């Protein structure tokens, strides 16, 4: 019994970062749904239409587009950051690689092919397409999540856009027309610019500022010029 409790405690401790943020995500998503339904019903009341229940709101395109437009911007941030930091550098930032390591690095440095170790992932030790795919798998998955969520945003967005037009007695538009609309690009770009600003701010502020104990910060006593050094 004691051993089982120890293993359970160990699991929670060893996975606490993912579990904590995953739980917070669900809580905030639920809160967004509550606030979103209230706002949506306020709009319906102004237009003299019948209000809807919580379950019905979760099935609306209005809720879907609000969620997916934020998801795609977050995955875009990580996709660009993962690929960009292969070559782009910031002197003095722990968010950057060391200045002499720009690029994809050697097989030895990456523990690939003949330099893979006994505990390395199996595909890291191959010398064919599997190694090529696995060595870029994180960026590719983030790119895939971005494009899928952006597609979901466009589909739910055109539905929400057309629902509003119908309530205003206007003709609905096609998906293709919506992709060229100001509404679609305004939703996308307002999220993209905020994510890019956050990445740029993190890269430069971490040169001069510190957070004791965080791997996103350099050690408190590290010099401002120390690059690629994490606490």
Give an overview in words.
This protein is an all-alpha fold. It folds into two domains: about 1-60; about 60-105 and about 135-230, no CATH class. It is about 65% helix and about 0% strand. The chain has nine helices and no strands. The protein has helices at about 1-15, 15-45, 55-60, 60-85, 105-110, 130-135, 135-165, 175-180, 180-210. The chain starts with a helix and ends in a 23-residue tail after the last helix. The mean pLDDT is about 90.
Can you give keywords for this protein?
mainly alpha, globular, 65% helix, 9 helices, 2 domains, 231 residues
How far is the N terminus from the C terminus?
37 Å
Low-confidence residue ranges: none
Strand content: under 5%
Overall, the morphology is: globular
Alpha carbon gyration radius: 23 Å
- Total of domains: 2
Largest sheet: none
For the residues shown, what is the average pLDDT? 90
Give me the number of helical elements.
9
Topology as a string of helices (H) and strands (E): HHHHHHHHH
* Class by SSE composition: mainly alpha
Helix content class = 55-70%
Instruction: Tell me how many strands there are.
Output: 0
């Amino acid at each position: 019994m004691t051993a089982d409790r120890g293993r359970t405690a160990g699991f929670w401790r060893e996975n606490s970062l993912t579990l904590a943020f995953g739980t917070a995500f669900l809580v905030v998503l639920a809160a967004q749904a509550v606030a979103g339904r209230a706002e949506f019903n306020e709009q319906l009341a102004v237009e003299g239409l019948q209000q809807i229940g919580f379950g019905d709101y979760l099935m609306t395109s209005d809720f879907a587009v609000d969620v997916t437009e934020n998801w795609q911007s977050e995955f875009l941030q990580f996709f660009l950051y993962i690929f960009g930091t292969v070559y782009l550098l910031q002197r003095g930032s722990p968010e950057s690689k060391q200045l002499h390591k720009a690029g994809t690095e050697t097989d030895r440095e990456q523990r690939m092919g003949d330099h893979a170790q006994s505990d390395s992932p199996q595909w890291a030790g191959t010398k064919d397409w599997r190694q090529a795919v696995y060595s870029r798998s994180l960026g590719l998955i983030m790119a895939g999540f971005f494009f899928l969520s952006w597609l979901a945003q466009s589909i739910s967005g055109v539905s929400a856009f057309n629902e509003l037009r119908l309530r205003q007695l206007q003709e609905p538009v096609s998906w293709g027309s919506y992709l060229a609309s100001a509404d679609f690009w305004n939703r996308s770009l307002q999220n993209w610019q905020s994510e890019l600003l956050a990445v740029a701010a993190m890269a430069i502020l971490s040169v001069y500022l510190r957070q004791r104990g965080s791997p996103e910060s350099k050690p408190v006593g590290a010099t401002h010029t120390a690059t690629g050094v994490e606490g």
